[in-house]
Design brief:
alpha/beta
């Protein structure tokens, strides 16, 4: 075991740390276009993030939001499918979400929060996929959205609401006749195993390998400025800052790295 640690594990971890520093210095190495070919000439492009709860945006999507906040040709909006009212704190969490979004350069009116009894904040109640699809489609059409980011089929943490958000967005993208003629791109955030999830920047090598394996994969890295943005955004969610979330901010790879697969 000691030989494996010395000759395999340690070099891999060191390689990940070095690669992370390199990608922070030269982000162009992983930059790929995220918009449909038909939208390349559009001067101001519109990206929508579809999440399930207030704080999802900074806990899971921070590197991507930090990157997009620096692009003057991109407008970012956020659609949160619940108020986060599982503990009867919905009114508080809505305000926290707006403050978090502003940290990433969004305007308050670009944050859309759904309050629907049929889309409850609950890990036990299933959401109707068609209802989610219809809700997301209305926002996509009204905002002339070009690209959507959301969870994948495992929802990063396995939360049923995260998974339902993915299922609804996928259903919308693949079945709506509208998007056969008005193309949008949908990207699903990669869920990883527990060891990788809490390996911070040390997951860079594995994430880079995934991103490099296909033309439909995308990768975003948060440098120290982007990481700081994510921390500041999470601090806006005061009602959620329990001890284990503070640890999450230090150890989660999702604070430093996002990898996606194109859905449609």
């Amino acid at each position: 075991i000691q030989m494996i640690l010395v000759h395999v594990v340690v070099p891999l971890l060191l390689a990940s740390a070095v690669l992370y520093a390199l990608l922070c210095w030269r982000p162009a190495l992983i930059e790929r276009d995220i918009f449909p070919q038909e939208k390349q000439q559009k001067k101001q492009k519109h990206v929508l993030f579809v999440t399930a709860h207030p704080d999802d945006e900074c806990m899971f999507f921070s590197p991507t939001l930090a990157y997009l906040s620096r692009r003057p040709d991109v407008t970012v909006s956020l659609l949160c499918l619940t108020t986060g009212n599982h503990d009867q704190l919905g009114d508080v969490r809505k305000k926290e979400l707006v403050k978090s979004a502003v940290t990433f350069g969004m305007t308050p009116d670009s944050v859309i929060i759904v309050d629907d009894q049929y889309l409850p904040d609950s890990p036990k109640k299933a959401w109707n996929v068609a209802l989610v699809a219809k809700t997301v489609e209305a926002v996509v059409v009204a905002g002339d959205v070009d690209t959507v980011f959301t969870f994948d089929q495992r929802g990063v943490s396995g939360h049923q609401n995260h998974i339902a958000a993915y299922m609804g967005v996928k259903h919308m993208a693949l079945t709506s006749q509208r998007f056969k003629f008005q193309k949008i791109n949908v990207y699903a955030l990669e869920s990883v195993g527990l060891a990788r999830k809490f390996s911070s920047i040390l997951d860079t090598l594995f994430a880079f390998g995934m991103a490099a394996t296909g033309t439909n994969n995308r990768m975003f890295i948060a440098d120290l400025t982007g990481y700081s943005q994510g921390i500041q955004a999470m601090l806006m969610h005061e009602s959620q800052l329990v001890w284990f979330r503070k640890l999450y901010l230090v150890f989660s790879r999702y604070m430093f790295i996002n990898t996606y697969t194109k859905v449609n």
